[in-house]
Amino acid sequence: MLPLYLLTNAKGQRMLIELKNGETIEGQLTNVDNWMNLTLANVTHTSPNEILQLPEIYLRGNFIKYIKLQDDIIEKVKQSNVQQQSQGHHQNRDFRRRQGGRRDNDRRFNQGGGQRRHEGRGNYNNGGNRRSYGNRQAEGNTAMGGFVQHHQTTSQQPTPLGQVQY
Amino acid sequence: MSESEKQTHNQQKKKFEGPKREAIVDLSKYQDEKIRVKLMGGRLVTGILKGYDQLMNLVLDETVEYMRDEEDDTIILKEKTRNLGLVVIRGTMLLTLSPLSGAEIISNPYEPYDNEEGF
Amino acid sequence: MPENRNSPAASSSKITEGEADLYLDQYNFTTTAAIVGSVDHKIFVLLRDGRMLFGILRTFDQYANLILQHCVERIYFTEENKYAETDRGVFMVRGENVVMLGEVDIDKEDKPLEAMERISFDEATAIKQQRDEARFKMETRKGKQLAQYGLIHDFHKSDIY
């Protein structure tokens, strides 16, 4: 799951984008392209000078610093992914082909370690596994699973809605 | 493939489309409308869209550029403008583009604001 | 890579996580692929505007665009022995804005923080903004002076680190 795919599958969600110049744009994602150019609807554009409410906006991907996505986005995309995986492998391969470059990466990480391909572990040898973090967490003994627990006990509670400040 | 399988397949397809290669914004809907364009380097202009192409090069008429503070060029002085008339804007320099109709200035920028999504 | 054929990782039928890491260490990644080992681990990211983000790296691409989950933004004032942090949720960072990133040892990361005083994030942002502003003024002045000698001193507000 590449970042751009996550974004493409987040269409319709509200998100907050900070631009390179520090301005922020908050709105509902309507479209994304290969270059991360975005179109958003019902936009609030905050700059040092003013706050603008706009019906829609087109935004160059080039000009983005970061995007704050909704907290559940990874789970949502992952779910539709799991559905897809249960559909069988031929589709999965289709999907990976469209990702371009990924297949090549897989091959590189697998060089000289043919058996690892069948391990089903590891983030390296199987792009598909990278998505199934939920399963890994359920195991509870991976580095990740341990972390999530650790993190949630040590870091502060998520700030209540509407209070987060930029 | 059964009918129901096809249906779910289509759903998946819809759910998992990749990023687009073609233009994602239809500029024809802004034809002869006033638009607001931010450019690389920090300039802000508004004008009436007279023409455009695939590369997002634009032709704007009755273009107005908003001038910036001389000390700190990130501050745009709304009241200080200059008229540029008919201009071509290179698509490569374009950062943001939005229609002016329906745009609304929320007057006090220094007041913290709430929104229903609570970002 | 013929030398890898005989490596323990390749010959054993079941490899542990540690062995897998070792195995990957044999490659000299100089591209974005170098961070493949940090996927699903907690990393820290320094952005060009000086922000420090801590979160779990979920995925990345060839441009080092990152997806960070459970993201926390932290501001450190090392001289005053103070810090502030706030939760940010899921972040997608465009790779070109990243100065550096690295894995965080989650067992050790809290130790230095315990010795520091935690202040509110709003307070910290205000102080930081003030300092950045001062720095910006100074650099602009420096730039003007250098320009008199025909030297270019490139400095941007959004690129101070």
TrEMBL record, chain A:
It is found in: Nucleus. Residues 80-89, 122-136 have a biased composition (Low complexity). Keywords: mRNA processing, mRNA splicing, Nucleus, Ribonucleoprotein, RNA-binding, Spliceosome. GO terms for molecular function: RNA binding. This is LSM complex subunit LSM4. Residues 80-141 are annotated as: Disordered. Residues 2-73 form the Sm domain. Pfam families: LSM. The keyword RNA-binding applies. Its main location: nucleus. Binds specifically to the 3'-terminal U-tract of U6 snRNA. LSm subunits form a heteromer with a doughnut shape. One of its GO terms (biological process) is mRNA splicing, via spliceosome. Belongs to the snRNP Sm proteins family. GO terms for cellular component: spliceosomal complex; spliceosomal snRNP complex. It comes from the Eukaryota.
UniProtKB/TrEMBL annotation, chain B:
Residues 1-20 are annotated as: Disordered. GO terms for biological process: mRNA splicing, via spliceosome; nuclear-transcribed mRNA catabolic process. PROSITE patterns: SM (PS52002). Residues 22-103 form the Sm domain. It comes from the Eukaryota. Gene3D superfamilies: 2.30.30.100. GO terms for molecular function: RNA binding. Belongs to the snRNP Sm proteins family. This is LAFE_0G12244g1_1. It comes from Lachancea fermentati (Zygosaccharomyces fermentati). The lineage of its organism: Eukaryota, Fungi, Dikarya, Ascomycota, Saccharomycotina.
From TrEMBL, chain C:
Pfam families: LSM. One of its GO terms (molecular function) is mRNA binding. CDD domains: LSm1 (cd01728). It is found in: Cytoplasm; Cytoplasm, P-body. Component of the cytoplasmic LSM1-LSM7 complex which is involved in mRNA degradation. Residues 30-107 form the Sm domain. The lineage of its organism: Eukaryota, Fungi, Dikarya, Ascomycota, Saccharomycotina. The keyword Cell membrane does not apply. It comes from Lachancea fermentati. InterPro entries: Lsm1, LSM_dom_sf, PTHR15588, Sm, Sm_dom_euk/arc. Belongs to the snRNP Sm proteins family. Component of the heptameric LSM1-LSM7 complex that forms a seven-membered ring structure with a donut shape. One of its GO terms (cellular component) is ribonucleoprotein complex. The keyword Ribonucleoprotein applies. This is U6 snRNA-associated Sm-like protein LSm1. The gene is LSM1. Keywords: Cytoplasm, mRNA processing, Ribonucleoprotein, RNA-binding. One of its GO terms (biological process) is deadenylation-dependent decapping of nuclear-transcribed mRNA.
